[in-house]
Design goal:
Number of domains: 1
Number of strands: 11
Helix content: under 10%
Number of helices: 0
Largest sheet: 5 strands, antiparallel
Length: about 120
């Protein structure tokens, strides 16, 4: 029986305040995995847009030190946060080819008081 690779729940954002204009999650290696999803939990006061981004030229050494910050490209539709406490699922099913992924939150106008938590999961189909 063949074994399929899987990334179980990984915390990509942990109590990240939305007071910054841009908040990037931890970068995750999804090479060899072709179906990914994020669960995002936001508190009231998180007003802006979430984007899934991927990079082919981002690089890390074996210790996790960034050797090339890469160029990040937004893929798929953006998800809007309207300032309400919410939990939602962002799924990117079969044939996802990006070897590196992250979430990016961009702030909308107005006062921000929210906090984001996000969890990534991925698997080989």
């Amino acid at each position: 029986m063949s074994r399929k690779n899987r990334l179980t729940s990984f915390p990509a954002l942990v109590n990240s305040p939305t007071t910054a204009a841009v908040v990037n999650s931890a970068v995750s290696n999804t090479g060899g995995l072709d179906s990914i999803a994020y669960q995002v939990n936001s508190t009231a006061g998180s007003n802006g847009n979430l984007h899934l981004q991927t990079s082919v030229d981002y690089a890390q050494d074996f210790m996790g030190n960034v050797t090339n910050p890469g160029n990040w490209v937004t893929i798929g539709a953006n998800t809007s946060l309207l300032g309400l406490a919410n939990s939602f699922f962002m799924a990117y099913p079969v044939n996802f080819a990006g070897p590196w992924v992250r979430l990016q939150f961009t702030q909308a106008s107005g006062t921000q008081t929210g906090v984001l938590n996000a969890f990534l999961t991925a698997k080989m189909v």
